[in-house]
Every structure is written in structure tokens, then in C-alpha cells.
Amino acid sequence: MKNSIAVFAALIVVVGLSYAWGANAADKGASPSLLSHNVYFALKEPTPENRQKLIDSCKKHLSQHAGLIYFATGARCEEAKGGLNVSDFDVALIMVFSDHEALHTYAASAAHQKFIAENAATFKGVRVFDADVENVAATAEKSASK
């Protein structure tokens, strides 16, 4: 129970910091093309069934949000065992938002909060990586068509 509370508290802190970071970037006039939001979940009991339950919950609660351009979720690739491959997670969630505001709206949404409430007790750990990114493929396509 204490671990679940700690994980839930950590999620709230991460969301708050993400919001504060985005607000500061907006204040400075930054306008990134896109925002990549990558979340890696380690489960207390990483069985195939528990991984699938979390994947299904991601799809149910997190895949339909305003400003969401790309959504993918799945289990860690067991075959990827190269020297640089990280293997201390069980499920990945990859989201790309149109801008910082879309991420902030998503983070505060009832669906996101429900996802956290329903799944936090199963988390051993959660890591969140946010990055301002460019859609290079779209830029390359435009250049090629000229």
C-alpha cells in the first residue's frame, strides 16, 4: 500500500513538473513543432496477463485526446538485448501531442486521472520522458515533392 501511494504521489509530481516546465517554455516564447511524451512502466508482477491489462487500459483511457497526433503502446521487446537496450520496464506508452497545451490538457483530463487511479497499485515504477520534437518525415516529404 505504501508503495502504491508513493508511485501515485510521484505521478502527481511528474505531471505537475511537466505542466510547470511547459508553462515556462510558453512564457519564453518557445513554440515547438510537437511534444513527445514517452512513459515506461515497470510492473510489480510483470506477467504477460498483467502487461496486456495495462496495454488495454492505456488504449481505453489514453488514446483519444484532443491534440494527440500519435499513440502507441506495447510490451517491451524481449528480443532486443543489445548493449544499449534498456530492459527495466514492462510496458511502453508513446504519445505525440500537437503542442505543450495539448499535453497539459491530457494530463489534467478525467480519463488520465482514471487511468492512474485504476493502475497505480500495479506499478513498481514509472518513468516519463518529454521532448520537443520535429516531424522530420513530413518535412522531408514536402521537400521531395517540390
Architecture overview:
- This protein has 146 residues and is α+β, with helices and mostly antiparallel strands.
- The chain has a single domain, classed as Alpha-Beta Plaits (2-Layer Sandwich).
- 48% of the residues lie in helices and 25% in strands.
- It has helices at residues 2-27, 48-62, 100-108, 110-119, 136-145, and strands spanning 34-43, 68-75, 91-97, 123-133.
- Strands 2-3-1-4 form a 4-stranded antiparallel β-sheet.
- Helix 2 packs antiparallel against helix 4.
Structural class by SSE content: alpha+beta
- The value of Rg in angstroms is 16 Å
CATH topology group: Alpha-Beta Plaits
Instruction: State the CATH class.
Output: Alpha Beta
Largest sheet: 4 strands, antiparallel
- Known CATH architecture: 2-Layer Sandwich
- Reading the helices and strands in chain order gives HEHEEHHEH
Using the alpha-carbon principal axes, give the shape: globular
- Helix percentage: 40-55%
Question: Largest beta sheet: what is the strand line-up?
Answer: 2-3-1-4
Instruction: Report the uncertain regions.
Output: 5-10, 12-32
List the domain count as a whole number.
1
| Amino- and carboxy-terminal Cα gap | 59 Å
Mean of residue pLDDT values: 83
Number of beta-strand segments? 4
Enumerate how many helices there are, as a single number: 5
Query: How large a portion of the residues is in β-strands, by DSSP E?
Result: 15-25%
Oligomeric composition of the shown chains: single chain
How are the secondary structure elements laid out?
Elements: H1 2-27, E1 34-43, H2 48-62, E2 68-75, E3 91-97, H3 100-108, H4 110-119, E4 123-133, H5 136-145
Antiparallel strand pairs: 1-3, 1-4, 2-3
